[in-house]
Amino acid sequence: MSKVFTIAEGLENLGALRTGGQGSVYKGRRTGSIYTAVKLIPTPVTVENEEDKNYRNFRSEVAKLEKVNADPSPHVVKMLSWGITESGSFPYIEMEYIDGPDLCDLLQPPNDGIFTLKELLKVALQVSAALAHCHRAGVKHGDIKSNNIKYNRHTGNYVLLDFGLAMMSEEQRRSSVRHAGAIEFMAPEQLDGKMLFQTDIYSFGIMLYELFTGTVPFPLSGNSDTGRNAVMLNHLETAVPDALAVRRANLPQAWSAEKQAREMQAPAWFLSLLDVCLAKSPDNRYKNAMELQDVVINGSLSSADGYTAALHNENESLRAQLEESRQAKLNETMKLAGLQAIAAKAGIIYNEQHGRFEQSRRIMQTTRPVFMTVLALALGSVAFLLYSFFAKPDPMPVSAAFPVGIKSNKPYYSPYIFIKSYNYDSVFNANRKVAAKKPVSLKRDQLPKKDSGKKKKRKRFLGVF
Hints:
This is Protein kinase. One of its GO terms (molecular function) is ATP binding. Residues 439-465 are annotated as: Disordered. Residues 11-297 form the Protein kinase domain. The protein is of the alpha+beta class. It has three domains: 1-97, Phosphorylase Kinase, domain 1, CATH 3.30.200; 100-309, Transferase(Phosphotransferase), domain 1, CATH 1.10.510.10; 368-463, no CATH class. It has helices at 53-70, 117-136, 170-179, 197-213, 225-237, 243-249, 257-263, 268-277, 289-345, 368-390, 424-437; strands spanning 11-20, 23-30, 35-40, 79-84, 91-96, 149-151, 158-160, 348-351, 356-359. The chain has a five-stranded antiparallel β-sheet with strand order 1-2-3-5-4, covered by helices on one side. A two-stranded antiparallel ribbon has the order 6-7. The longest helix has 57 residues, at 289-345.
Protein backbone atom coordinates (compact mmCIF):
# COMPACT_ATOMS: atom_id res chain seq x y z
CA MET A 1 0.00 0.00 0.00
CA SER A 2 1.45 3.34 -1.04
CA LYS A 3 2.17 6.04 1.48
CA VAL A 4 -0.27 8.92 1.72
CA PHE A 5 2.11 11.07 3.72
CA THR A 6 5.07 10.65 6.01
CA ILE A 7 4.19 10.23 9.68
CA ALA A 8 7.60 10.22 11.31
CA GLU A 9 11.03 8.78 10.81
CA GLY A 10 10.98 5.01 11.21
CA LEU A 11 7.16 4.94 11.17
CA GLU A 12 5.63 3.84 7.90
CA ASN A 13 2.04 4.69 6.94
CA LEU A 14 0.17 1.67 5.55
CA GLY A 15 -3.13 3.42 4.91
CA ALA A 16 -6.26 4.47 6.79
CA LEU A 17 -8.08 2.04 9.06
CA ARG A 18 -11.04 4.33 9.67
CA THR A 19 -11.95 7.99 9.80
CA GLY A 20 -14.13 9.97 12.17
CA GLY A 21 -15.06 13.41 13.30
CA GLN A 22 -12.24 13.46 15.87
CA GLY A 23 -9.57 12.30 13.43
CA SER A 24 -8.43 9.34 11.38
CA VAL A 25 -6.70 6.14 12.41
CA TYR A 26 -3.99 4.73 10.18
CA LYS A 27 -2.23 1.43 10.25
CA GLY A 28 1.47 2.02 10.77
CA ARG A 29 4.54 -0.13 10.77
CA ARG A 30 7.73 0.46 12.63
CA THR A 31 10.95 -0.46 10.96
CA GLY A 32 10.67 -4.22 10.82
CA SER A 33 7.44 -6.18 11.29
CA ILE A 34 5.85 -4.42 14.27
CA TYR A 35 2.38 -3.12 13.43
CA THR A 36 0.81 -0.19 15.26
CA ALA A 37 -2.25 2.09 15.05
CA VAL A 38 -1.69 5.82 14.54
CA LYS A 39 -4.35 8.38 15.50
CA LEU A 40 -4.09 11.71 13.64
CA ILE A 41 -5.71 14.79 15.24
CA PRO A 42 -7.28 17.09 12.58
CA THR A 43 -5.94 20.27 14.15
CA PRO A 44 -2.60 21.26 12.60
CA VAL A 45 0.08 22.68 14.83
CA THR A 46 1.77 25.81 13.56
CA VAL A 47 4.51 26.08 16.17
CA GLU A 48 5.55 23.29 18.51
CA ASN A 49 5.57 25.34 21.70
CA GLU A 50 3.14 26.51 24.37
CA GLU A 51 2.24 29.61 22.36
CA ASP A 52 0.27 27.45 19.92
CA LYS A 53 -3.14 26.69 21.45
CA ASN A 54 -3.60 23.44 19.55
CA TYR A 55 -0.16 22.21 20.56
CA ARG A 56 -0.79 23.21 24.18
CA ASN A 57 -4.08 21.32 24.31
CA PHE A 58 -2.49 18.33 22.60
CA ARG A 59 0.41 18.18 25.09
CA SER A 60 -1.97 18.54 28.03
CA GLU A 61 -4.07 15.58 26.96
CA VAL A 62 -1.02 13.50 26.02
CA ALA A 63 0.17 13.98 29.58
CA LYS A 64 -3.13 12.55 30.81
CA LEU A 65 -2.82 9.55 28.50
CA GLU A 66 0.71 8.99 29.74
CA LYS A 67 -0.72 8.83 33.25
CA VAL A 68 -3.25 6.23 32.06
CA ASN A 69 -0.44 4.16 30.55
CA ALA A 70 1.84 4.58 33.52
CA ASP A 71 0.03 1.64 35.08
CA PRO A 72 -1.03 -0.37 32.01
CA SER A 73 -4.45 -2.02 31.90
CA PRO A 74 -5.23 -4.99 29.67
CA HIS A 75 -8.51 -3.27 28.75
CA VAL A 76 -7.09 0.09 27.66
CA VAL A 77 -5.09 0.47 24.47
CA LYS A 78 -1.43 1.29 25.12
CA MET A 79 0.13 4.48 23.80
CA LEU A 80 3.54 3.84 22.26
CA SER A 81 4.58 7.31 21.09
CA TRP A 82 3.27 10.72 20.06
CA GLY A 83 4.45 13.64 17.96
CA ILE A 84 3.84 15.89 14.97
CA THR A 85 3.79 14.53 11.43
CA GLU A 86 6.63 15.55 9.13
CA SER A 87 4.15 16.66 6.51
CA GLY A 88 1.02 18.58 7.44
CA SER A 89 2.11 19.18 11.06
CA PHE A 90 -0.74 17.13 12.47
CA PRO A 91 -0.53 15.82 16.03
CA TYR A 92 -0.52 12.04 16.17
CA ILE A 93 -0.56 9.32 18.77
CA GLU A 94 0.90 5.89 18.06
CA MET A 95 -0.86 3.02 19.85
CA GLU A 96 -0.69 -0.75 19.90
CA TYR A 97 -2.51 -2.46 17.08
CA ILE A 98 -5.44 -4.57 18.29
CA ASP A 99 -6.22 -7.40 15.92
CA GLY A 100 -9.92 -8.14 16.11
CA PRO A 101 -13.44 -6.82 15.38
CA ASP A 102 -15.19 -3.86 16.95
CA LEU A 103 -18.19 -4.47 19.21
CA CYS A 104 -20.51 -3.12 16.52
CA ASP A 105 -19.11 -5.70 14.07
CA LEU A 106 -20.06 -8.49 16.49
CA LEU A 107 -23.70 -7.43 16.15
CA GLN A 108 -23.66 -7.93 12.38
CA PRO A 109 -24.25 -11.19 10.44
CA PRO A 110 -23.16 -13.93 10.61
CA ASN A 111 -23.11 -13.16 14.36
CA ASP A 112 -26.29 -13.02 16.42
CA GLY A 113 -28.00 -9.63 16.52
CA ILE A 114 -27.67 -9.40 20.32
CA PHE A 115 -25.22 -10.59 22.98
CA THR A 116 -25.92 -13.42 25.36
CA LEU A 117 -26.20 -12.49 29.03
CA LYS A 118 -22.92 -14.27 29.77
CA GLU A 119 -20.95 -12.31 27.15
CA LEU A 120 -22.74 -9.09 28.04
CA LEU A 121 -21.63 -9.46 31.65
CA LYS A 122 -18.05 -9.96 30.45
CA VAL A 123 -18.21 -6.75 28.40
CA ALA A 124 -19.67 -4.81 31.35
CA LEU A 125 -16.92 -6.02 33.69
CA GLN A 126 -14.03 -5.29 31.33
CA VAL A 127 -15.21 -1.95 29.92
CA SER A 128 -16.17 -0.65 33.37
CA ALA A 129 -12.67 -1.67 34.52
CA ALA A 130 -11.17 0.26 31.59
CA LEU A 131 -13.25 3.36 32.39
CA ALA A 132 -12.38 3.13 36.08
CA HIS A 133 -8.70 2.93 35.14
CA CYS A 134 -9.05 6.15 33.11
CA HIS A 135 -11.09 8.03 35.70
CA ARG A 136 -8.54 7.24 38.42
CA ALA A 137 -5.97 8.97 36.22
CA GLY A 138 -8.32 11.94 35.82
CA VAL A 139 -8.99 11.20 32.16
CA LYS A 140 -12.49 11.40 30.70
CA HIS A 141 -12.83 9.40 27.52
CA GLY A 142 -15.74 11.34 26.01
CA ASP A 143 -16.43 8.95 23.12
CA ILE A 144 -17.60 5.62 24.51
CA LYS A 145 -19.38 3.66 21.78
CA SER A 146 -19.46 0.18 20.36
CA ASN A 147 -16.99 0.87 17.55
CA ASN A 148 -14.44 2.32 19.99
CA ILE A 149 -14.18 -1.00 21.81
CA LYS A 150 -12.31 -3.83 20.14
CA TYR A 151 -12.27 -7.54 20.83
CA ASN A 152 -8.69 -8.79 20.91
CA ARG A 153 -8.87 -12.15 19.20
CA HIS A 154 -5.50 -13.18 20.66
CA THR A 155 -6.21 -12.46 24.34
CA GLY A 156 -10.01 -12.65 24.44
CA ASN A 157 -10.18 -9.21 26.12
CA TYR A 158 -12.27 -6.18 25.21
CA VAL A 159 -10.06 -3.11 24.79
CA LEU A 160 -11.07 0.56 25.00
CA LEU A 161 -9.70 2.73 22.15
CA ASP A 162 -9.74 6.29 20.84
CA PHE A 163 -9.42 9.13 23.34
CA GLY A 164 -10.19 11.68 20.63
CA LEU A 165 -12.68 13.91 22.44
CA ALA A 166 -10.52 13.90 25.55
CA MET A 167 -7.98 15.94 23.63
CA MET A 168 -10.38 18.54 22.26
CA SER A 169 -11.40 21.90 23.61
CA GLU A 170 -15.01 22.52 24.63
CA GLU A 171 -15.68 24.43 21.40
CA GLN A 172 -14.20 21.61 19.30
CA ARG A 173 -16.30 19.04 21.15
CA ARG A 174 -19.50 21.03 20.62
CA SER A 175 -18.81 21.30 16.90
CA SER A 176 -17.87 17.63 16.63
CA VAL A 177 -20.99 16.44 18.42
CA ARG A 178 -23.31 18.48 16.24
CA HIS A 179 -21.72 17.62 12.92
CA ALA A 180 -19.58 14.48 13.10
CA GLY A 181 -19.86 12.65 16.45
CA ALA A 182 -21.84 9.47 17.11
CA ILE A 183 -24.97 11.28 18.25
CA GLU A 184 -26.66 8.02 19.29
CA PHE A 185 -24.15 7.63 22.19
CA MET A 186 -23.95 11.25 23.28
CA ALA A 187 -25.09 12.32 26.75
CA PRO A 188 -27.50 15.26 26.96
CA GLU A 189 -24.84 17.57 28.48
CA GLN A 190 -22.51 16.89 25.56
CA LEU A 191 -24.84 18.81 23.31
CA ASP A 192 -23.54 21.91 25.09
CA GLY A 193 -19.93 20.80 24.76
CA LYS A 194 -19.63 19.71 28.38
CA MET A 195 -17.81 16.52 29.34
CA LEU A 196 -18.05 15.06 32.83
CA PHE A 197 -17.21 11.74 34.38
CA GLN A 198 -20.96 11.07 34.30
CA THR A 199 -20.84 11.65 30.52
CA ASP A 200 -18.83 8.46 30.11
CA ILE A 201 -21.35 6.70 32.36
CA TYR A 202 -24.24 7.66 30.05
CA SER A 203 -22.38 6.50 26.92
CA PHE A 204 -21.48 3.27 28.73
CA GLY A 205 -25.19 2.71 29.39
CA ILE A 206 -26.05 3.31 25.71
CA MET A 207 -23.37 0.79 24.68
CA LEU A 208 -24.74 -1.87 27.09
CA TYR A 209 -28.30 -1.16 25.92
CA GLU A 210 -27.22 -1.75 22.30
CA LEU A 211 -25.57 -5.07 23.11
CA PHE A 212 -28.54 -6.15 25.25
CA THR A 213 -31.29 -5.28 22.75
CA GLY A 214 -29.48 -5.20 19.40
CA THR A 215 -30.16 -1.49 18.84
CA VAL A 216 -29.49 1.86 20.46
CA PRO A 217 -32.46 3.48 22.26
CA PHE A 218 -32.62 6.38 19.77
CA PRO A 219 -31.41 5.29 16.32
CA LEU A 220 -30.31 7.86 13.73
CA SER A 221 -32.18 7.83 10.42
CA GLY A 222 -29.74 9.08 7.81
CA ASN A 223 -27.09 11.62 8.69
CA SER A 224 -28.93 14.85 8.03
CA ASP A 225 -29.12 17.70 10.51
CA THR A 226 -32.82 17.00 10.96
CA GLY A 227 -32.16 13.42 11.96
CA ARG A 228 -29.34 14.38 14.29
CA ASN A 229 -31.46 17.07 15.93
CA ALA A 230 -34.26 14.54 16.47
CA VAL A 231 -31.86 12.18 18.22
CA MET A 232 -30.51 15.06 20.37
CA LEU A 233 -34.05 15.94 21.40
CA ASN A 234 -34.78 12.31 22.31
CA HIS A 235 -31.71 12.21 24.54
CA LEU A 236 -32.94 15.32 26.29
CA GLU A 237 -36.64 14.56 26.69
CA THR A 238 -37.73 11.05 25.61
CA ALA A 239 -37.77 8.12 28.02
CA VAL A 240 -35.61 5.17 27.05
CA PRO A 241 -37.67 2.28 25.59
CA ASP A 242 -38.10 -0.74 27.84
CA ALA A 243 -34.97 -2.84 27.34
CA LEU A 244 -36.60 -6.21 28.11
CA ALA A 245 -39.41 -5.65 25.61
CA VAL A 246 -36.96 -4.63 22.87
CA ARG A 247 -34.71 -7.62 23.63
CA ARG A 248 -37.67 -10.03 23.45
CA ALA A 249 -38.66 -8.61 20.07
CA ASN A 250 -35.08 -8.95 18.71
CA LEU A 251 -34.23 -12.44 19.98
CA PRO A 252 -32.61 -14.47 17.16
CA GLN A 253 -34.96 -16.99 15.60
CA ALA A 254 -32.09 -19.47 15.38
CA TRP A 255 -32.07 -19.77 19.17
CA SER A 256 -34.07 -22.62 20.64
CA ALA A 257 -37.12 -21.87 22.77
CA GLU A 258 -35.22 -22.99 25.85
CA LYS A 259 -32.31 -20.64 25.11
CA GLN A 260 -34.67 -17.74 24.36
CA ALA A 261 -36.41 -18.24 27.70
CA ARG A 262 -33.07 -18.45 29.51
CA GLU A 263 -31.70 -15.33 27.80
CA MET A 264 -34.74 -13.32 28.87
CA GLN A 265 -33.90 -13.88 32.55
CA ALA A 266 -31.87 -10.69 32.90
CA PRO A 267 -30.83 -10.01 36.52
CA ALA A 268 -32.60 -7.16 38.28
CA TRP A 269 -29.31 -5.43 39.17
CA PHE A 270 -28.43 -5.17 35.46
CA LEU A 271 -31.74 -3.56 34.53
CA SER A 272 -31.34 -1.16 37.46
CA LEU A 273 -27.82 -0.32 36.30
CA LEU A 274 -29.15 0.59 32.85
CA ASP A 275 -31.74 2.89 34.39
CA VAL A 276 -29.14 4.72 36.50
CA CYS A 277 -26.62 5.03 33.66
CA LEU A 278 -29.25 6.43 31.27
CA ALA A 279 -30.66 9.05 33.63
CA LYS A 280 -31.14 12.41 31.89
CA SER A 281 -29.48 14.38 34.67
CA PRO A 282 -25.80 13.70 35.41
CA ASP A 283 -26.55 14.02 39.13
CA ASN A 284 -28.77 10.94 38.95
CA ARG A 285 -26.06 8.75 37.43
CA TYR A 286 -23.08 7.08 39.04
CA LYS A 287 -20.51 9.71 39.96
CA ASN A 288 -17.63 8.02 38.19
CA ALA A 289 -16.53 4.73 36.71
CA MET A 290 -15.12 3.49 40.03
CA GLU A 291 -18.62 3.54 41.50
CA LEU A 292 -19.97 1.97 38.32
CA GLN A 293 -17.37 -0.80 38.49
CA ASP A 294 -18.29 -1.61 42.09
CA VAL A 295 -21.94 -2.01 41.08
CA VAL A 296 -21.03 -4.28 38.16
CA ILE A 297 -18.72 -6.42 40.30
CA ASN A 298 -21.22 -6.76 43.15
CA GLY A 299 -23.99 -7.54 40.70
CA SER A 300 -21.92 -10.14 38.89
CA LEU A 301 -21.02 -11.76 42.21
CA SER A 302 -24.67 -11.96 43.21
CA SER A 303 -25.47 -13.45 39.82
CA ALA A 304 -22.61 -15.90 40.28
CA ASP A 305 -24.02 -16.87 43.68
CA GLY A 306 -27.41 -17.46 42.13
CA TYR A 307 -25.82 -19.36 39.28
CA THR A 308 -23.80 -21.43 41.74
CA ALA A 309 -26.93 -22.18 43.74
CA ALA A 310 -28.70 -23.20 40.54
CA LEU A 311 -25.78 -25.44 39.62
CA HIS A 312 -25.84 -26.96 43.11
CA ASN A 313 -29.56 -27.68 42.85
CA GLU A 314 -29.09 -29.15 39.40
CA ASN A 315 -26.21 -31.33 40.63
CA GLU A 316 -28.33 -32.57 43.54
CA SER A 317 -31.16 -33.36 41.16
CA LEU A 318 -28.81 -35.24 38.83
CA ARG A 319 -27.32 -37.13 41.79
CA ALA A 320 -30.79 -38.14 42.96
CA GLN A 321 -31.69 -39.29 39.45
CA LEU A 322 -28.46 -41.28 39.24
CA GLU A 323 -29.15 -42.97 42.59
CA GLU A 324 -32.70 -43.72 41.52
CA SER A 325 -31.39 -45.21 38.28
CA ARG A 326 -28.89 -47.36 40.16
CA GLN A 327 -31.58 -48.61 42.55
CA ALA A 328 -33.91 -49.41 39.66
CA LYS A 329 -31.11 -51.29 37.92
CA LEU A 330 -30.37 -53.23 41.11
CA ASN A 331 -34.05 -54.16 41.50
CA GLU A 332 -34.18 -55.21 37.88
CA THR A 333 -31.07 -57.37 38.39
CA MET A 334 -32.63 -59.04 41.43
CA LYS A 335 -35.87 -59.68 39.57
CA LEU A 336 -33.93 -61.09 36.65
CA ALA A 337 -32.01 -63.42 38.96
CA GLY A 338 -35.29 -64.68 40.44
CA LEU A 339 -36.77 -65.18 36.99
CA GLN A 340 -33.65 -67.03 35.90
CA ALA A 341 -33.99 -69.44 38.85
CA ILE A 342 -37.66 -70.08 38.07
CA ALA A 343 -36.98 -70.37 34.36
CA ALA A 344 -34.14 -72.84 34.95
CA LYS A 345 -36.57 -75.21 36.66
CA ALA A 346 -38.84 -74.99 33.64
CA GLY A 347 -35.97 -75.59 31.25
CA ILE A 348 -35.70 -71.97 30.16
CA ILE A 349 -32.36 -70.19 30.17
CA TYR A 350 -31.47 -66.49 29.89
CA ASN A 351 -29.34 -65.60 26.88
CA GLU A 352 -27.17 -62.68 28.03
CA GLN A 353 -25.80 -62.09 24.55
CA HIS A 354 -29.26 -61.44 23.11
CA GLY A 355 -30.87 -60.29 26.37
CA ARG A 356 -33.80 -62.68 26.28
CA PHE A 357 -35.09 -65.98 27.69
CA GLU A 358 -34.80 -69.06 25.46
CA GLN A 359 -35.93 -72.68 25.66
CA SER A 360 -33.23 -75.09 26.79
CA ARG A 361 -32.44 -77.67 24.10
CA ARG A 362 -31.62 -80.37 26.66
CA ILE A 363 -35.20 -80.76 27.93
CA MET A 364 -38.05 -82.27 25.89
CA GLN A 365 -41.36 -80.48 26.18
CA THR A 366 -44.76 -82.18 26.08
CA THR A 367 -48.35 -81.39 26.91
CA ARG A 368 -49.78 -81.90 30.37
CA PRO A 369 -52.26 -84.71 29.46
CA VAL A 370 -49.55 -86.73 27.76
CA PHE A 371 -47.21 -86.21 30.70
CA MET A 372 -49.86 -87.36 33.20
CA THR A 373 -50.63 -90.45 31.12
CA VAL A 374 -46.98 -91.44 30.93
CA LEU A 375 -46.58 -90.84 34.63
CA ALA A 376 -49.63 -93.05 35.48
CA LEU A 377 -48.30 -95.87 33.33
CA ALA A 378 -44.88 -95.62 34.94
CA LEU A 379 -46.35 -95.69 38.45
CA GLY A 380 -48.59 -98.69 37.56
CA SER A 381 -45.62 -100.61 36.22
CA VAL A 382 -43.60 -99.97 39.35
CA ALA A 383 -46.52 -101.08 41.57
CA PHE A 384 -47.02 -104.30 39.59
CA LEU A 385 -43.35 -105.20 39.81
CA LEU A 386 -43.27 -104.58 43.55
CA TYR A 387 -46.32 -106.78 44.01
CA SER A 388 -44.71 -109.57 41.99
CA PHE A 389 -41.66 -109.52 44.27
CA PHE A 390 -43.28 -109.26 47.67
CA ALA A 391 -46.76 -110.91 47.45
CA LYS A 392 -47.10 -114.30 49.51
CA PRO A 393 -49.13 -117.32 48.26
CA ASP A 394 -51.99 -118.87 50.27
CA PRO A 395 -51.04 -122.11 52.13
CA MET A 396 -51.91 -125.33 50.29
CA PRO A 397 -54.98 -127.01 51.87
CA VAL A 398 -54.57 -130.47 53.31
CA SER A 399 -56.08 -133.02 50.96
CA ALA A 400 -55.81 -136.63 50.10
CA ALA A 401 -52.78 -135.92 48.07
CA PHE A 402 -51.00 -134.69 51.18
CA PRO A 403 -50.87 -136.66 54.35
CA VAL A 404 -51.96 -134.93 57.47
CA GLY A 405 -49.17 -132.91 58.99
CA ILE A 406 -47.32 -132.55 55.72
CA LYS A 407 -47.27 -128.99 54.48
CA SER A 408 -46.86 -128.00 50.94
CA ASN A 409 -43.45 -126.57 50.29
CA LYS A 410 -44.25 -125.40 46.81
CA PRO A 411 -42.64 -121.95 46.46
CA TYR A 412 -44.40 -119.02 44.88
CA TYR A 413 -42.96 -117.55 41.79
CA SER A 414 -44.09 -114.75 39.64
CA PRO A 415 -45.61 -115.57 36.32
CA TYR A 416 -43.44 -112.85 34.81
CA ILE A 417 -40.21 -113.00 36.77
CA PHE A 418 -38.40 -116.34 37.12
CA ILE A 419 -36.13 -116.22 40.16
CA LYS A 420 -34.72 -119.77 39.67
CA SER A 421 -33.82 -121.51 36.46
CA TYR A 422 -35.07 -125.02 37.52
CA ASN A 423 -38.63 -126.35 37.40
CA TYR A 424 -40.46 -125.81 40.69
CA ASP A 425 -43.23 -128.27 39.80
CA SER A 426 -40.79 -131.15 39.52
CA VAL A 427 -39.29 -130.38 42.90
CA PHE A 428 -42.74 -130.12 44.45
CA ASN A 429 -43.90 -133.50 43.10
CA ALA A 430 -40.72 -135.20 44.27
CA ASN A 431 -41.17 -133.90 47.77
CA ARG A 432 -44.78 -135.05 47.82
CA LYS A 433 -43.83 -138.64 46.86
CA VAL A 434 -41.20 -138.86 49.58
CA ALA A 435 -43.66 -137.65 52.16
CA ALA A 436 -46.27 -140.26 51.11
CA LYS A 437 -43.93 -143.15 51.74
CA LYS A 438 -43.09 -142.17 55.35
CA PRO A 439 -45.37 -143.36 58.20
CA VAL A 440 -47.03 -140.57 59.97
CA SER A 441 -48.10 -140.55 63.61
CA LEU A 442 -50.55 -137.84 64.21
CA LYS A 443 -51.30 -136.21 67.46
CA ARG A 444 -54.71 -135.13 68.55
CA ASP A 445 -54.24 -131.58 67.74
CA GLN A 446 -52.88 -132.54 64.34
CA LEU A 447 -56.05 -134.34 63.28
CA PRO A 448 -57.81 -132.67 60.37
CA LYS A 449 -60.74 -130.56 61.33
CA LYS A 450 -64.12 -130.92 59.87
CA ASP A 451 -64.82 -128.59 57.10
CA SER A 452 -67.43 -126.12 58.16
CA GLY A 453 -68.39 -125.58 54.59
CA LYS A 454 -67.40 -121.98 54.64
CA LYS A 455 -64.53 -121.03 52.44
CA LYS A 456 -62.28 -118.30 53.73
CA LYS A 457 -62.02 -115.47 51.34
CA ARG A 458 -58.58 -114.46 50.28
CA LYS A 459 -57.70 -110.82 50.31
CA ARG A 460 -57.05 -109.53 46.90
CA PHE A 461 -54.67 -106.77 45.87
CA LEU A 462 -56.56 -103.94 44.27
CA GLY A 463 -59.53 -106.34 43.91
CA VAL A 464 -57.80 -108.12 41.03
CA PHE A 465 -55.12 -110.55 42.22
